[in-house]
Amino acid sequence: MHFHRRIALALVTALALVPAAQAEGFQGASGGVYSFSDSSVAAQQPAAQSGVEIPTATLSPQVAALPWNLMLVNRNNPVPGDWSPELVMLDNGRQVDSRILPDLQRMFDDCRKAGLNPTVYTAYRSYEDQKDMLVSKYRQYKNQGMSRTNAQIAALKVANYPGYSEHQLGLAVDIDSADPTTCSNASVWDWVKHHCHEYGFIWRYPKQKSDITGIDNEDWHFRYVGVEAATYMMTNYLCLEEYLQQFYGIPY
Ligand SMILES: [Zn+2]
Q: 55-125+165-252: which CATH architecture?
């Protein structure tokens, strides 16, 4: 069931959206769907529709069996196109999985009590949103004269394949300062990194774990996993992939 409920999350409505440089691009993975040889990828989905070859996203049974709060999305584990969390809308129009809202609200309340001014500038993104991002980047590069292959490679550096963004879960939020002239992004990120586990969130993409996560350092991207798991991960310096290997035997 879907519903969109306006809630009193006191986020500013005038958002300064951050440009695409912050989009999560994969650093590159070996083999599999990341091979750009036309034959392997095009066989999965014809390119005619969008111009971009898009691999089919299928869920492994092991990942499908995970509790909702530990659901995994990374370069090896996409979510299928019909993945549809129950969403709730924030005051600024962003949407998140309704189950994370109370903890997200608590975190923002306490961050504000600490004198900071955080905002959520990216939250849930649908499969179609993600696909549109990739296709529009691809077309932009193609129009600049790049070959099809090069345009696809360049586009994938700034936008993931649909199915491969954690934002599609509704469990991830990109947090920024609502007003960098009075409150720096760095001060917001610093507070959230130190306190996020108290509210069930983890700092998802630290530089030290980029070999495992496949994503470069992202100071702004936080992911809900629940207080217990978040506290374990943050105090033991584990990323989600390491945690899931340790407790659920999912290889990374
Ligand atoms: Zn993000």
A: 2-Layer Sandwich (3.30)
Burial of 183 (0-12, 13-18, 19+ CB in 10 A): middle
Q: What is the pLDDT of residues 43-57, one digit of tens each?
A: 344 444 567 888 888
CA–centroid distance, 165 to ligand 1, in Å, is 8
Mean pLDDT within 5-15: 35
Q: Which residue in the block uniquely carries the two structure tokens 């390119």?
A: 47
DSSP state letter for 218: E
Q: Is 236 helix (H, G, I), strand (E, B) or coil?
A: coil
Neighbours of ion ligand 1 (CB under 5 A): 174, 221
pTM, rounded to two decimals: 0.79
- Which of 24, 53, 218, 241 is the catalytic position? 218
Q: Could you tell me the sign of the dihedral formed by the alpha carbons of 176, 177, 181, 184, in that order?
A: negative
228 included as an active-site residue: no
In which residue are the tokens 């990341």 written? 34
Residue 54: in which H helix or E strand, if any? none
Q: Cα(10) to centroid of ligand 1, in Å?
A: 21
How far is CA 88 from its chain centroid? 17
Residue 39 CA to ligand 1 centre (angstroms): 31
Domain boundaries, the chain: 55-125+165-252, 128-162
The residue among 85, 118, 106, 116 whose CA lies nearest residue 12 is 118
